[in-house]
Specification:
Layout: H1 6-17, H2 23-29, H3 40-60, H4 65-86
Helix pairs in contact: 3-4
Amino acid sequence: MQWFNIDEYIEEMKETLEMAITDEMLLNWFTYHSPSPEQLPKYQQIREAGLALARIIVLNTPPSADQTFALRQVRAACMTANQAIACGGQ
């Protein structure tokens, strides 16, 4: 009994890889989106949560490349979350 069909998987991956990034998507990603009043508290919550996690990381890990990397990942996560808000999830 075959539990994994490699041919089906390859076809699914081809479909995924063929998804083109459109100019509309690029324009949305690289355009400044002024925050609406409804978005402001969302940005604030993300910043506060990111800051809290960053402080926990600094307080509980030794200064090191790993600590720096962890902080950069928190920063990137916050920035990406903010981008999701600004770009409407697109």
